[in-house]
Amino acid sequence: MDLLERETVLQDLAGHLTAATSGPGRVALVRGEAGIGKTTVIEHLIKLADPHVRALVGACDPLTTPRPLGPLLDLAPDCAETVRTALGQALAGAGHPGEVFQSLLDDLRGCPSLLVIEDVHWADEATLDLLRYLARRLPTVPALVVATYRDDAIGRAHPLAALLGTLAGYRWVSRHALARLSRLAVARLASGRAVDAEELYRVSAGNPFLVTEILAAPTEHIPATVREAVAGRLASLSEPARQVADMLAVLGHRASLPLLAGLLPDADGALEEATACGILRVGGQLIEFCHELARLAVLETVPVAYRLQIHRQVLAALRSGPVAADDLALVADHAEAAGDSAAVLEYAPQAAAHAAALGAYREAAAQYTRALHYAACLPPEQQASLLEGHAQACSMARRLDEAIASRRTAAKLRHALGDRLREGENLRWLSCMLHLNGHSTEAAQTGLEAVRTLEKLRPSAELGGAYLNLSTLAVYGHEDAEVAAAYADRAMAVGEQFGDAGLVVQARFLPAAARTLCGGSGWEECEHAVSSAMAQDLQLDASFLAMLMCLYAVQLHDDARATAAVQRSETYCLEHELLTYLYCTKAMDSWRLLHRGSWNQATDAAHGILSHPLSPPVDRAIALTVLGLVRARRGEPQVWPPLEQAARLVDANFLLSTGLGWEARVEVAWLTEDDELAKTEAHHGLSAVADRTHPWLSGALACWIRRTGGTPPQVPAAEPYALELAGDWAGAAARWDQLGCRYDAALARLAGNAAALRQALADLETLGARRAAKRARAMMRNRGVRPVRSSPRAATRANPYGLTNREMDVLKLLAEDLRDAEIAARLYITPKTAGHHVGAVLAKLGVHTRHEAARKFECPKSR
């Protein structure tokens, strides 16, 4: 069939392939609904490729629980021996998926390649990780990676949405959408056929697959649905050929020829007939439906009893010999469909463990869930083991509610069995998950219960982990630094006794972190602990500590430290594919951007977190609070709803532990000129934090009481707050400027003289802080300070980054790579003034270098 209305996409892809195989590499995402022609476009692209370009094609299967790295199994025969070896070792449980990824990357570096992975909407988690891994490193590889997917099959919570969000930041990723055929194209396809082209277009809605199926049906009339079109093709088949189609429909989208031959001996002729009709096709040792819609149409016609019979036959065939690791998911799938609970309980846990070893935690959780459906007949100890595996897989897949439920049940079962060691370990993990889910009070109680349970036994690594958890919670909760240190010391002793390097490095980190948050020294010790974890390749420990450094730097309002910490954490998590802590880091980054006054970027980051299906409640609460504060500062509507939603996601202790949530409520009340509410909220916050050492929150709340005309109590206060409370507004503002917090510096200057008030107003207007600027103008009028500056001009308000016309002129010259002196000459200003304008532009854009600012200017033009 002609390739109609796909020429532009095909030409673009061919251009990407030519450029990519000469280096640097690229990614092309091809999307469209089922039957839109994605595979056809890929087939034409392969034909257009130069002979020296190697084509590697793999596809994902629509299994209930996909096989880990299924597409890689398809294309491995055409790869180097190193890839096949690494893949075999990983599938056998003797290797790590990261080694497979690296070997494939090395292979791609050695040969210009076109790597295609089709139907990524069906991909297992390990395959998504492979794409994420390759995409990040493609600029160093002479290859074009093409991924096709159905955009009508994914929603906000679909795992592929997370990958697409990650790829959004890579400039070497292109996106191509395939649209439905026009009336003209459908009429052209129907030309010469005894069909009504208009009716064909109406019935098919321009879907190429439906058009093809309808035109191929042996009938003079257009069927009402594709089901009838497929039925028309099947009607011409002999019984053996129809049996092949029915068998394959039950097996899934594709199956191996040896398996099919074992189920249907002497089926060669029938197989040839079935493929000749255009519904099935053979590639290598695989047979598959030309399209999933055809398979589903066939499947609907297969009697339920016959489906059950086929599943039982397949299960018996797969179990007739040793089951390969990569077939475990397939066996479990057919075992469940065959109603064989014993086989499900035998193979689903093995498939889950195999998937978890490959980093496919979502698939691992699904297999554990499958096994748990049949686990009631198992002894309690086996049930507990399944629940523990399920909880661990769910926690890594960020399905926290399920992880918590399984840990609770497992702990109860272990208690009933008298297995105190595993009971304590379950309680420790339950505590961790509860905190991540925003239930900090219950997390602390459960963590203490874990320690009490384990302390009754001989020393163990589990006890060390329980001590470490309590130390971590103490730091989170801003308890006395000595409490965190005491638990950390116990954890360290156990870690040294059992040679647990991760336990030791975290135990050294936590007391230093507690001292730092309480206003003491300890930052350098924290940095040393993170470096030590990375040097020892303790990946989980290093990523966790790197993420905590982001949290602590943001709580200290230190932009320089926070920026460095975020960059390091994101880089490390991406390099090691540790997405769990990457999402947390992004939440901290939205908070950092809020502090530095980059509110557009903060809002974008917050929306990214909220739209991400794997974001846990604690990250969502931070993002919602950031959104509420930005709206309040800008004078936008819908300020309280995100703050109230954040408060519902987590408990009050979590809001206190970060400080962000409670302080936000006070500030919003002040911005809306409800000073009494601001004072009331501030006093409530100080009462709640009275038994903690939280100088950055208690100092902030005391300052808000002072700003609303109240008398603040004597409380621990971090340096800039302490200076403001002591009446040294100039010192406070200077310290805020040093920390990179322009908004806070402006608030401190509101207590100053006329010059300070004018500077505060100018800074607030530059930031777009309309409500605070309104209060500043009122203060100036009350104090007789003149002149009062007007609010930003319409052009400035309309600019998405709040840039003035003059700042836009500067940004355009930055895009020409001009220095300050050259900018000054062009604009007839002094170099010093030009430097001030450049600094303002960088701050408003939320970037660090002139080149980054220039790219910000170029991106909108290109769009």
Automatic annotation (TrEMBL):
Residues 778-799 are annotated as: Disordered. GO terms for biological process: regulation of DNA-templated transcription. GO terms for molecular function: adenylate cyclase activity; ATP binding; DNA binding. One of its GO terms (cellular component) is cytoplasm. SUPFAM superfamilies: C-terminal effector domain of the bipartite response regulators, P-loop containing nucleoside triphosphate hydrolases. It holds the Pfam family GerE. Keywords: ATP-binding, Nucleotide-binding. The keyword Isomerase does not apply. The keyword S-adenosyl-L-methionine does not apply. InterPro entries: AAA_16, P-loop_NTPase, Sig_transdc_resp-reg_C-effctor, TPR-like_helical_dom_sf, Tscrpt_reg_LuxR_C, WH-like_DNA-bd_sf. Residues 796-861 form the HTH luxR-type domain. This is LuxR family transcriptional regulator. It comes from Streptomyces collinus (strain DSM 40733 / Tue 365).
